Amino acid sequence: MAAVIARRIGDGDRVGIGVNSPIPAAAALLARRLHAPHARLRLTGSPEGERFLGSKEFFDMAQRGKIDLFFFSGIQVDRMGRINLHVLGDHERPRRRFAGAFGSAVLYQVIPRVILFRTEHSPRALVEQVDFVSAVGRPELLVTPRAVLAPGADGELELVSYSPWESIQSVRAATGWDLRIRPDVRATEPPTEHELEVLRALPVAG
Amino acid sequence: MLMALQAGASGIGWTPVPGLLGTDLLRVRTDFRVVPDPFQPEREVVLVPALAPEFALLQGRRADAAGNVVIGTAFDDRLLAQASTTVIVCVEEVREGAADRLHGDEQVIPAAYVDILTVAPHEGTGRATLRYVESRDRATVQP
């Protein structure tokens, strides 16, 4: 997942990384070591991140269009790329309650490029319709351990590529809606030996 | 929320907030409003009430005798102090010149915002001050 995301980070991109986004953080550090040495990271806790602005100023910057790329996950992600960070079940009587949107409702609509990531690719995580719309926007990609999805012309997420150990059928079976397949669907390019070496050598957050 | 605090800090009753359109936050937050943008009426904009807390309780690092507080930058504490009616700050130590020099992750909350200052060494073991306490203690212990 980190290698797939890293390949989407361009040299000089201004990349924001949330406080609970370890896979995008690894991807950004990987990209800086390979093809994007001048990517500018808003990544707290890393010496490679730019000096921390405070959340307020980060949001102000994003709202002024000065962040190019950001990452979200969600308890649920649906076929239109909406994310749920709030509750499972009815909002007033939830089965489970989670930490909340953390500004994603704003950032998803003001940051031009958003990549979604979800470490569980199953019918309960990738659903037809989220129980609660915490944030909505147009994602560039959804990256999971099984597959890479991207929106079609109507915004619905479609299968772009599947991990080498998966198939179109297995990804469709693990997805909670009737997943459309891109005509040029293929296996995801696996991480190269070099990408893996660099990833394994990344500093552990202190 | 940060924009709502900024509105509170500026003494404005509400503020427009970008984004939010199409989310269920607008369904459950009945105090949010969606109105036509007065300057671009074909677009909608979300208005939210200002946040102006009665009290802000902050954990600072150090302060000078005048009440200028040095605090970490991680939690928008200065904005919270600006927006709140009564600001109570606990610091590790009070000494002369405490606010004259700052480390990279520090900012000053001017005494003008601080209503009550308390001193409690080693209280700040939360994230905001833990590293500061640890590094100061190491500096104290080591010859």
Key structural traits:
heterodimer, A: 206 residues, alpha/beta, B: 143 residues, four-stranded mixed β-sheet, three-stranded antiparallel β-sheet, 4 helices, 22% helix, disordered C terminus
Summarize the structure.
The complex is a heterodimer of chains A (206) and B (143). Chain A is an alpha/beta fold and 206 residues long. Chain A has helices at 2-6, 22-33, 55-63, 104-110, 168-173, 193-200, and strands at 14-16, 40-42, 69-72, 76-78, 83-84, 87-89, 94-97, 113-117, 126-127, 141-143, 147-151, 157-162, 180-187.
Mean pLDDT of chain A: 93
For the largest interface, the chains and their residue counts are: A-B, 23 and 23 residues
The percentage helix of chain B is 10-25%
Please mark out the parts of chain A with pLDDT under 50 across 5 or more consecutive residues, or reply none. none
Low-confidence stretches of chain B: 137-143
Q: What's the pLDDT, averaged over the residues of chain B? A: 85
Radius of gyration of chain B: 19 Å
Morphology of chain A: globular
Radius of gyration of chain A: 17 Å
Largest β sheet strand count, sense and barrel closure of chain B:
4 strands, mixed
Kindly report the oligomeric state of this protein. heterodimer
Number of helices of chain B: 4
Q: What proportion of the residues of chain A is helical, as a percent range?
A: 10-25%
Summarize the biggest pleated sheet of chain A.
6 strands, mixed
Strand order of the largest sheet of chain B: 8-5-6-9
Distance between the first and last residues' Cα of chain A: 23 Å
Strand order of the largest sheet of chain A: 3-8-10-11-12-13
Overall 3D geometry of chain B? Answer: elongated
